[in-house]
Amino acid sequence: MTSSSTFDRLLDRVNAGERLTADDIAQLAATPDILSVGMLADALRRRLHGTRVTYARVAACAFDASFANAVPPVAREIRITGCPTSLTSARAAVESAKAVAGDRLVSGFCWQDVERLGSNAGLPVARVLAELRAAGLEALAEMPMDAIDDEAAVIDTLRQAGFDRLRLTVAKAPAAERTGAMLRAAALQARFGGIRAIGPLPTVLDALRPTTGYDDVKAVAIARLAAPNIPTVQVDWQRDGPKLAQVALTFGADDLDNVTASDEAPDGRRRAPVEEVRRNIEAAGFTAAERDGRFHPVS
Amino acid sequence: MVDELARKVMDGARVGAADALELYRQAPTHLLGRLADTIRARRHPPRIVTYIIDRNVNYTNVCVARCNFCAFYRPVGSSEGYVLGFEEIFRKIDETMAVGGNQLLLQGGHNPDLPIAWYEDLFRAIKGRYPELRLHALSPPEILHISRINHVPVPEVVARLVAAGLDSIPGGGAEILVDRVRKLLNCYGKASADEWIDVMRHAHRAGLRATATMMYGTVETDEERIEHLIRVRDLQDETGGFTAFIAWSFQPEHTERGGVEATGIDYLRTLALARIVLDNVDNLQASWVTQGGKVGQLSLAFGANDMGSVMIEENVVRAAGASYCMDEVEIVTNIEDAGFVPKRRNMHYEILGDPIFREREVPRMLELATARSAGDTSVPEQLRQYPARSRAGKQLRLAQ
């Protein structure tokens, strides 16, 4: 991969709008030359989004806490964290969130939560999804590809239940497995549609063996290159941290998810999260644009 | 213009200030990385990335310099001020050697109550007890401070400290080697740009090797950041005394200056530019202690060939809000994961061997130690042997 002729050939193809093959992706995933991988992903990212980087202010609130106290007016999405054991409680949490959210998007739970709620209630997952949808849930917060056995069936079920802004995530798969997951995500998008975003960095952190910077930026770049048909590649501002999140923008990411919605900053307005986010986006050479939970621009 | 400059760099030509500025401002981040990575690969062809196991000990936090970017210092007379006793330092050395460490990085505040004899006695005591240990100690402003309060010329201070056991000098206190910046940071008084350079010149002439550093991201302009690099390069042309260059970003938390920290991309671009400009400095360290392990590792693609130190202990950056930690296992994992071969080194960048944890069991370290445990306000007994200059210091001696 490090040969300049191979790189130039791939770059020409990316710039021409041609899709890289699974073999190309595997070759890129195997190289330690992250600069080349990053340049390819950046080229594709710029072709898809120009210099625009979006970010979303999200109010995260535990299902059993008071949403009224936890949702600032500037929040563009209300994300329920955790999950109760009963469908009744889950539905109540969604209704409480929706009452506070107004026309803002309410997200929450992961696919495993949905299965657990169905199992506890003795109901099929389709029914669980329908009830949560009816209560006001518009999106699942996490769909960890490495923890789902039959991804196609799950996507199909979600689509039929009216969930049309799917966000695929990775729980803790090693870097080598994530490449396959990104290629599968692209195939699922081609078959079912409805996948709005992909978050390729692990949501479960291992303190003794954390992922490395190389792992992370390569995962972002591979996600961008493997799934050009999925509009958005996200990193998580709070979980991944400002430094890595910013660098990831130059390796193919185009969206900063989960920016805290509270601008309460003890050190003043310049240290407020949204100012910090915009400063980081602009310092990386991009244009910052706020979006809402439905990926619509906020004027 | 950028393409032309890139070709120039690839051809191995030296870059002037104007060209460096153009590259820093206009070159895409990946291109800067590519240029820096190419130079690193030329200088270090076997893909070896080094690191050192040493401990970063701050012998005192009492300081009269009052730099407004520092969250670590305490003024003379502060109840939070401390001076480590020799026995405390010996314990730290024992712990360092137990995990394979071979060097003590010893720096501290400009304490007016520590005469040169205290340093000489400490160094002799350390060397007498640990003859194999390397003493990488006292940045140029500290040497200048010792010179001033003892009325001893810098070359003589250096000679006396070398005679007592000093092996090499850390490049701290350089900040930005431009006096306009130093005045704004209130560090012109501790050492002007010329004074910092001059102490290094004396040290190099005395046969000491040293590192050079840069703390960026305060009030300096892009031009001043580059001027700093050029000043380091000029001295290196003259003496060849620098083994390595380390850049880190200003950490604003709890400092008088405050403000915001430069971003991760800014760090990688600055590092890459340093590799391009400093064509006569062999080694560039990754500053994982300020950037975190992930951007620290990514530094290896932007010109760094060294992961710095395991550190074991850190006080100065932690005081300003950054508290990253990487033990040897994690440093080695990061090096190998990036496709490089990890090797332990000493301060002179001589290879000492493979990772120590692969030779014997070493406990994992998930948090860096501090100079002292919270609430420890003890005053070392041996301080009584050394005359104090400040009123607070004299009162403390009398109370002992």
Features:
A: 299 residues; alpha/beta; B: 400 residues; TIM Barrel; 4-stranded mixed beta sheet; 4-stranded parallel beta sheet; 15 helices; 11 strands
Architecture overview:
The complex is a heterodimer of chains A (299) and B (400). Chain A is 48% helix and 18% strand. Chain A is of the alpha/beta class and 299 residues long. Chain A has one domain: TIM Barrel (Alpha-Beta Barrel). In chain A, helix 4 links the parallel strand 1 and strand 2 (77-81). The longest helix of chain A is centred in the middle third of the chain and has 18 residues, at 175-192. The model of chain A has no long low-confidence stretch (mean pLDDT 93). Chain B is of the alpha/beta class and 400 residues long. Chain B has one domain: TIM Barrel (Alpha-Beta Barrel), CATH 3.20.20. Chain B contains 15 helices and eleven strands. In chain B, strand 6 (209-216), helix 10 and strand 7 (242-249) form a beta-alpha-beta unit. In chain B, helix 2 (17-26) runs antiparallel to helix 11. The longest helix of chain B is centred in the middle third of the chain and has 18 residues, at 222-239. The radius of gyration of chain B is 20 Å and the shape is globular.
